[in-house]
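Consortium newsletter contribution from the modelling node. Members have asked for a concrete example of what our holo predictions look like. Here is one, prepared for the S-adenosylmethionine complex that several groups have been discussing at recent meetings.
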Amino acid sequence: MKRAERAPKAAKALPAVAIPVATTTEQHPDIRPGQSIALLQELHILTRDGKLNQDSRRKLKQVYHLVQFIEPLLEQVLQDHAGVTLVDHGAGKSYLGFILYDLLFKNLQNGSHIYGIETRDELVQKSQELATRFAFPGMSFLNLSVAASTGSTLLPQQIDVVTALHACNTATDDAIHFALTKRARFIVLVPCCQAEVASVLTKNKRQALKNNALIGNGLAELWRHPLHTREFGSQITNVLRCLQLEAHGYQVSVTELVGWEHSMKNELIVASYKNLPRQRPSERLQQMLQTLGLEEMGQRFFSEQLAGATAEVAI
Ligand SMILES: C[S@@+](CC[C@H](N)C(=O)[O-])C[C@H]1O[C@@H](n2cnc3c(N)ncnc32)[C@H](O)[C@@H]1O
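And here is the predicted structure:
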């Protein structure tokens, strides 16, 4: 069912806060000069008495690590045109959006904007209120699903950077679809678990084994224990996502996100649009789908039409 579009409600009038900023890293070596202490407190990264506990230090480390990857991408966009537009899908409490804005966007004054897309209304409201209270005019939060945001008129046509950090299940795939439709220059993904591919793998096991030589070389074992099939499905999903991005002219890098050592979901995929040749990755993608009996997922991971449209536009 298509989610109705709702403009963000006007934030309630809240008392203005004095915004202490870090002037030195002496007190908090983890906090950057100029960073808003009050914002970090509101995000519950710093406690009310200004302390940083183990959990929040880890969270901050994770976000900084991502910021480190995103900052040079923003610089590249800004070399091209003034004002960068970033959409963060499955924003949650918007740690990433707020810290990015505080560190890199708030002094730009060039129309740059961060949009947070999130289906949980209370989180959207809270983030919008926070942005108003901290006078961050270049931040908006929309109560939309990632899929619905692709056609939403509440977002501009041109989006430079798309991020999706642990966006649940197929929301990462919707974020990729969003980015390809918007012809985003950069896409930064830390995928969550995805159950869809594993369920199709399980459903089509017999056909996959009949179709090819997997059974002969022992790979049928991948289907023996459901847990292995699920994990295999998760890995395959990311392989297919990378091929899909390459099949749309992107250069893709895959690394580990530090600070997420406790989580299995620590794969960082960064895609940069380079207008690269698409044929070979498209063929590889089709081969993988066929080999694994996943042909019915062709629509999820590839769109001829989108690839054609993207090819015509040099970004
Ligand atoms: C695991 S949290 C991650 C939040 C944030 N990105 C972070 O890393 O701290 C996933 C968030 O995505 C939201 N979400 C899940 N599916 C979504 C969808 N299809 N469209 C928009 N938001 C979605 C959830 O409500 C949740 O807040």
